[in-house]
Amino acid sequence: MKAGYRLFAGLAVFYFIMTVIYWQVGGEAVGITAIMLSGGLAALIGFYIWFTNKRLGGNLPEDNQQGEIADAAGELGFYSPHSWWPLPVALSMCAAGLGLLIGWWLTLIAVGALVVSILGFVLEYEKPSASAH
After folding, report:
1. pLDDT tens, residue by residue, 53-88
2. How many domains does one find in the chain?
3. Are residues 55 and 91 in the same domain?
4. Checking CA distances to 47, which of 71, 88, 96, 109 falls within 20 to 30 Å?
5. Inside any domain, residue 105
6. Is residue 75 part of a domain?
7. How many CB atoms lie within 10 A of CB 105?
8. SS3 for 116?
């Protein structure tokens, strides 16, 4: 995946050059900041791809011309098939956003509910230790 990090490194250099040109031409501060942050984001992604490629030994399955799709398959992680916790997380986050419009009292209540629902979501499969009895 050498082309991946080279592409993003090139984009980062391009954005940084365009930032200097835009600043010299007389662009406004918001545009200068946005282009500079775009360059930073491209550099961050390029560094991540380069670092991951280096840790994996430089030979990724997608670099193999005779490779199969199954060669790149791996464990994707554990996803709970029956969790209800995303619903209160989403509702409390929505209430927190509405609280910014309606009143700070609603934001405070919603942030409290958000903390409880995130803890419930994260700790859903944690089991208490046997020594707790």
Report:
1. 888 777 777 777 888 888 777 777 777 788 899 999
2. 2
3. no
4. 71
5. yes
6. no
7. 9
8. helix
